[in-house]
Amino acid sequence: MPEKVEKYLPVCVSLGPGDPELVTLKALRTLQKVEIIYCPATQSDGKTLSRAKDILDEIGIDTQKIRIFLVPMSKDRTLAEKVYSDIASEIAECYQTGRSVAFVAEGDSGFYSSVHYISDKLEEMDIAVQHIAGVPAFIACGALAGIHVVKQDERLSVFPSGTSAEEIMMEVEAGKSVVLMKLSQQKDTIKKAVEILSEAQFHYFENVGIAQKEFYTNNRNEIIQRLFPYFSLLIVKKD
């Protein structure tokens, strides 16, 4: 009779926005314990870039067990989905052969994270995934600025992209706090909102949690002059 293989559920580990000190103890212990860690990266000008890998390095994770996979950056998600599907298949094989495995995500994996493709594929294979929470970027931004993102009975709206200056204005005038993400995809909309919303506070952030790159301003003129890189975010509150 063949020996039964002990199986370990794959773990999706959230790493927080970039500051290694914001990685939770539970995440750290899991990453230290598992045999294999899948880590996303991108390529730019021939260089492999991975904020997630940088975090893993800073918290002392053994590089021998880290497997980097490249994610194509394009609005057409077909190629990226193919990569995620392939990684899910590799993770499934690890699971079936009794190897402990994790895959990582910046911020919190349940909040606008592309690694949901991997979780979805694994669940389609009837493989459950454990999730470890992380600090979302907008929460870290609020701490950096020293503001309450929401308080008491205030409501919060989050827009990943595809909104309009008028929609932002309606949300703010209704007393909601608004978090705007993926600013690089909606530069004109953001600049228009900054110009027309006179009775609002604008809190702009870049690279929160990254030493020497972190930037914050609540000055409207400064915000309009920024280039809105990939890791930028805006919190808007009624004045």
From TrEMBL:
Its pathway? Cofactor biosynthesis; adenosylcobalamin biosynthesis
Methyltransferase as a keyword of this entry, yes or no, is: yes
Provide the Tetrapyrrole methylase domain boundaries.
12-219
| Alphabetized Gene3D superfamilies for the sequence | Cobalt-precorrin-4 Transmethylase, Domain 1, Methyltransferase, Cobalt-precorrin-4 Transmethylase, Domain 2
Entry GO MF terms: precorrin-2 C20-methyltransferase activity
Query: Which keywords accompany this UniProt record?
Result: Cobalamin biosynthesis, Methyltransferase, S-adenosyl-L-methionine, Transferase
Q: Which GO terms describe its biological process?
A: cobalamin biosynthetic process; methylation
A Pfam family found in this protein is TP_methylase
UniProt cross-references to InterPro entries, sorted A to Z:
4pyrrol_Mease (IPR000878), 4pyrrol_Methylase_sf (IPR035996), 4pyrrole_Mease_sub1 (IPR014777), 4pyrrole_Mease_sub2 (IPR014776), CobI/CbiL (IPR012382), CobI/CbiL/CobIJ_dom (IPR006364), Uropor_MeTrfase_CS (IPR003043)
Q: Which PROSITE patterns does the record match to this protein?
A: SUMT_1
Which NCBIfam families does the annotation name? cobI_cbiL (TIGR01467)
Q: Which family does it belong to?
A: Belongs to the precorrin methyltransferase family.
User: Which PANTHER family does this chain map to?
Assistant: COBALT-PRECORRIN-2 C(20)-METHYLTRANSFERASE (PTHR43467)
What is the protein's name according to its record? Precorrin-2 C20-methyltransferase
Give the taxonomic lineage as stored in the record. Answer: Bacteria, Pseudomonadati, Bacteroidota, Bacteroidia, Bacteroidales
